[in-house]
């Protein structure tokens, strides 16, 4: 049978994109080794102008791996990383993998309570953390050794010197990047004291676990998605095949997405290394820092989220800054408005397309073709070697007729191995035959382009980050005067969603909305704190008393 009859979407692929890819039998460590061999003298990392070549990166990884081995890290151990984007993050990531150990990424903006849950769940004994958040990790979960990273150590010498000037501005800038970390070991000193890991130290295999990435799934309880070396290499290879116009060893990729997020990790830590790209690192998205970097080292490939494209395009137009170097841009994590596509492409002359995925699929499964065949408003078509089905959400064994909405199932080499220590929840989403339930209701047109209609899961996506309503509601109920609460996502001004809290107050409570938000800040990362608080007399409930979040959201949208 003609392959296009079974997979009609392949007809819409950009010229040169294959229908399938060969999965590698090698690990992510081999990806870096190969890049060091092919592009040794090329700049691998740029951090505010301080550069690291691929040969230097490989040498740093070898020393860091030996340093971690001396701390007792062995094959299969989990090692927690709690770091913003910085060169030390890249080195630590590959060093852990070189030992056959497992990276567990954490958001450094998490509260102590949020970190405690995850650290306890995966049982890491060693954590490599940003020194400013080290107090939130020391003594938490099973962690015995905390290695603290000073971001200023990776800056160019002149910038490090400037931070030590006896000026208020310099002191404030330094305080934003580093802080004393009692009870920890210095990353810089630890690595400096180590020689390279012996070359004959056993390396990981393709089917070994590489990463635990925490996600809420359908229940809202964060759990670790198990991603193997094969999963992550496959998704990097799919991404490379998707953009045939890329030039190995010549691209510059901006890491404005956090490396601890599944999207940023794959596009920046694995995909970029696989093509020998220069990765320009930003600890967080800062418009001025990005524009400064554009003048110094123009980007050619930019993975980001819609609000970033919008802000960059507007600033470039207003200030007459040239962004024409960006030939390709891939948006994910939230819906991409067609107006943003039009704005970006008018300013850069490059292509901006939308992708779709989830943590459990490494994360990308679908994308708009990087060609004039793209269709803004859709999430595109399945990646090479990726299959999809659209099924009855109540009975995923029953396929929906063509054109009808249903739950999206995906299958491919990038689909995860299950949830860490949670076989029942794994079985609920990973069906026989390797099909992954996405929890999203979609439609597909005759050409295979998929449009997301609704989300079965009540996940809130704000600024590209996942927010689980149950976590927000738990924090809301801790606020004095709050009797009950529901957290929902409503459309935000810049696309995506914003977290909105709907609360029932005790009759005698003297609690203002800002008091509720302030109370939440004690227990939640900033992006999870509700942007708005709506006070109601009661919440809609099911017959068994469960709050109906979907009805709460519908009422707010209707203005009730």
TrEMBL record:
Under the heading CDD domains, the entry gives: FC-FACS_FadD_like (cd05936)
Classify the source by domain of life.
Answer: Bacteria
Q: Where is the AMP-dependent synthetase/ligase domain?
A: 34-420
Q: Which residues form the AMP-binding enzyme C-terminal domain?
A: 471-546
- Which GO terms label this protein's molecular function in UniProt? acid-thiol ligase activity
PANTHER family with a match to the protein in the record: LONG-CHAIN-FATTY-ACID--COA LIGASE, NONRIBOSOMAL PEPTIDE SYNTHASE PES1 (EUROFUNG)-RELATED
NCBIfam families per UniProt = PRK05605.1
What is this protein's name?
Long-chain acyl-CoA synthetase
